């Protein structure tokens, strides 16, 4: 089931709203709406583009996340505007931080509750693994989603690239727990640091993942050395063989067969229970 991306009447989000916004460009392929409660992130991913985008010193960014000033008050103001405009889509946490970073994430719980109280859906995208289970009780099968970014099943590989993030097995455990609770789950396979690792992740997780969003690596050593066309074809063969729902990101579109169905937006919830 797909939903049209017609619920954001203005590029960037509703006028006057900056805390709940409509991500542009590559980020917009992940979510119609987003919010970022923290500044910084303690996961220290070597490939993280956020310090550059925010023009923030990388050491300061990697030192850990801090709450943005008066975040709940500003969030409530924006969320009320979305509610008054009749917009009920999921708001994703987060693009420029991680909602389950290694520090104090009590604010994340308050943010989820505030968004829900204003009629919005919620989706968290995290590398925090089972840290997220603290908030499992808040997620509604009919409205919300839980997502993880995965780059490899190998803990040593992950520790090299995502030194402060939860180990891959811990992230898989979180996905399973949300799935078992009836929550829609999806996985971001981006950046793709090792194509064989991404294929292995799909083989390993497809029984409890509802959707894969698949991209490539940009501005990294493997960007130029990887055969992205072969990777795209291998991915398509695998997800179609397994019956796994997927979205191929724009960076890989040129490698898709002509006319390949690749809906940008899907309903990321189980409104009538899981099939
Ligand atoms: S989890 Fe996301 S925001 Fe945090 S360091 Fe890694 S890529 Fe950056």
Describe this structure in words.
By secondary structure, this protein is an alpha/beta fold. The chain has one domain (25-255): TIM Barrel (Alpha-Beta Barrel), CATH 3.20.20. It is 33% helix and 12% strand. It contains ten helices and nine strands. The protein has helices at 25-28, 50-54, 58-62, 71-84, 106-117, 155-161, 168-180, 195-205, 221-225, 228-242, and strands spanning 33-34, 38-39, 66-67, 90-93, 121-126, 145-149, 184-189, 211-214, 246-248. A seven-stranded parallel β-sheet has the order 1-4-5-6-7-8-9, with helices on one face. Helix 4 (71-84) packs parallel to helix 5 and helix 8 runs parallel beside helix 10 (228-242). The chain is globular and about 50 Å long. The two termini are 12 Å apart. The structure holds iron/sulfur cluster (SF4). Iron/sulfur cluster is lined by residues 41, 43-45, 48, 50, 97-98, 127. The site of iron/sulfur cluster has 9 residues, from loops.
Give the gist of this structure.
The chain is α/β, with parallel strands linked by helices. The protein is 33% helix and 12% strand.
Largest sheet: 7 strands, parallel
Radius of gyration: 18 Å
Mean pLDDT reading:
94
Compute the separation of the termini in Å.
Answer: 12 Å
Estimate the global geometry from the Cα principal axes. Answer: globular
Number of domains: 1
Number of strands: 9
Bound molecules: iron/sulfur cluster
Strand portion, in percent? 5-15%
Helix content: 25-40%
Q: What are the segments in which pLDDT stays under 50 over at least 5 consecutive residues?
A: 1-6
Question: Structural class, from helix and strand content?
Answer: alpha/beta
Query: What's the CATH architecture?
Result: Alpha-Beta Barrel
CATH level 3 topology: TIM Barrel
* Element-by-element helix/strand order: HEEHHEHEHEEHHEHEHHE
Look at the structure and give the CATH class.
Alpha Beta
* CATH homologous superfamily title: Aldolase class I
Biggest β-sheet: strands ordered side by side in the sheet: 1-4-5-6-7-8-9
**What is the tally of helical segments?**
10
């Amino acid at each position: 089931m797909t939903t049209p991306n017609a619920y954001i009447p203005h590029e960037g989000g509703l006028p006057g709203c900056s805390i709940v916004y409509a991500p542009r460009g590559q980020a917009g392929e992940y979510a119609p709406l987003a919010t970022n409660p923290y500044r910084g992130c303690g996961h220290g991913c070597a490939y993280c583009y956020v310090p550059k985008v925010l023009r923030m010193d990388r050491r300061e960014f990697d030192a850990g996340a801090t709450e943005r000033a008066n975040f709940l008050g500003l969030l409530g103001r924006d969320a009320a505007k979305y509610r008054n405009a009749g917009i009920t889509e999921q708001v994703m946490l987060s693009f420029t931080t991680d909602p389950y970073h290694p520090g104090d994430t009590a604010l994340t719980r308050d943010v989820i509750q505030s968004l829900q109280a204003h009629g919005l859906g919620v989706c968290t995208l995290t590398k925090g693994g089972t840290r997220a289970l603290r908030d499992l009780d808040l997620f509604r099968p009919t409205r919300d989603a839980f997502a993880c970014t995965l780059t490899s099943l190998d803990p040593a590989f992950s520790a090299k690239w995502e030194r402060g993030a939860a180990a891959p097995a811990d992230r898989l455990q979180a996905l399973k727990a949300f799935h078992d609770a009836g929550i829609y789950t999806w996985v971001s396979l981006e950046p793709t640091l090792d194509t064989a690792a991404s294929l292995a992740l799909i083989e390993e997780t497809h029984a409890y993942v509802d959707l894969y969003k698949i991209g490539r690596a940009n501005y990294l050593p493997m960007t130029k050395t990887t055969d992205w066309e072969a990777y795209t074809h291998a991915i398509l063969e695998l997800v179609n063989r397994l019956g796994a729902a997927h979205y191929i990101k724009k960076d890989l579109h040129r490698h898709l067969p002509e006319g390949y169905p690749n809906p940008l937006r899907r309903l990321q919830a189980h409104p009538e229970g899981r099939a």
